[in-house]
Amino acid sequence: MATDLEALGRAVKVAQYRHHRAMDARLSTVGTTLVQWDALRAIGRAPGASAHDLALTTFQSDQSFGTLATRLVAQGLIDRVPGRGRRIEHHLTDAGRAMLAAGATVADGMLAQSFAPLTEPERATLLDLLGRLSPDA
Predict the structure, then answer these.
(1) Cβ of 55: how many Cβ atoms within 10 Å?
(2) Consecutive 10-residue runs of the chain (137 residues): their mean pLDDT?
(3) How far apart are CA 27 and CA 41, in angstroms?
(4) Strand ranges (DSSP E) for the chain?
(5) Cα dihedral sign, 94-46-39-10
């Protein structure tokens, strides 16, 4: 019997939606959102990255990431400094590193709870299968 691919796609989307809503709610307890925390995480992983590279990493348009970065600067969480040519580099401030760490603690707990119904081998299989769908990720 063939798998209903539409149902499979919807199941992935529902899991992602529920996961994001839960993460957003929990991150609000430390004063951030999933979108903001994801940007801080991306900058923390690639200090000096351009807005374009960070937009790609965080699944946003260049314009959306630019707007987000402006808000993060206003909150004192990141600095934007001129790089080579027209490039603007992004760096975490001390406050940004603290927010990233606080968010990581929340995210770790939420992720553990989110994936608790799966055994460790099932988690590994799921990661492998999703990796095959997005080999460049």
Answers:
(1) 21
(2) 92 94 96 97 97 96 96 98 90 98 96 95 95 83
(3) 13
(4) 78-82, 88-92
(5) negative
